[in-house]
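User: Second chain of the day. Same drill as before.
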Amino acid sequence: MGLAILKRSLHIALAVPLTFSFLVTAHHHSPSAPPTKTIIAHRGASAYAPENTLPAFRLAFDMGADFIEYDVQVTKDKQLVILHDQTLERTTNVEELFPARGRIADSNKSGKKHWYIYDFTLAEIKKLDAGSWFGANFKNTTVPTFQETLDIARGRAGHLIELKAPDEYSARGVDMERLVLAQLERFNKTTSKSQTRTPIIIQSFSARSLQKIATELKSPLPLHLLTTADDKPGWLTREGLAKVKSFCIGISPHKESLTKNPDVITWAHELGLRVTPYTFTTITSQDAQPLRDQMFHFLYTFKADGVITDNPDVAVEARTKSVSLLSAPSPSSY
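Assistant: Same format as last time:
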């Protein structure tokens, strides 16, 4: 067990500079500027375009996001697609195209029908409209594949890939972790050269899944553990973070848990863990200023390493504000 942890620690030590060297060059700053803060577009620029779609990712690039964050799911024919929910009805017109395919799962106590992604093939999912729910100008936007998402971001931003419900897929006999890593390795996405140009981080709420990637599958890719606002497993304690360090380079906690206890960031940094809280969002332009101030507070008062946000443009403004404050002349210089 000790040898496994030692090997993993070596993997982590090698992975950190590879992944974040991209960020150092992506935003040039003077020696006196604060450390680069990472802007992560949550499901793309999802405040302005349908979440987890190519238009949302393109907009995130244009707004200056360093990473796009998105959710990976598995279809009936074992293809990887990008979708947050395990069901299709919230963000597509599946009920209209496939009205008879909804079903009530055994675990669903509400008695409501759902259209589960793993009941549909990739070809069927590609027929769905994943944009009209958000706005008429996004009509006929499709659910992207994992490969389409990898391709569109090449050299433009890094990937923060969330494995969605991997334990549930495992219970269904689907090895999501192997499928994702095989896709990345097939197209040389895990090499040091690729990581420098278009870095990849994998995250999940499932510690089991991340530990499998780190130890059983021996992937060198950097990993982040997602944690909930209540943090029932106790990951955001000194003891919990020490355990996280054995298989991850960072944590992505709910922002409320850091508001309750900002010391978590200090504890994480003492262990060399990066901290990228989620989700900072606003719908109306009137709320942009409070959101910018909130992200500025998390980045420069709490000293988080980045933010996961639906509004990457506002996050970039918060980062720009920090540089302007730092470079402003002091009162004594007038």
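The chain has 14 helices and nine strands.

User: Great, on to the next one.
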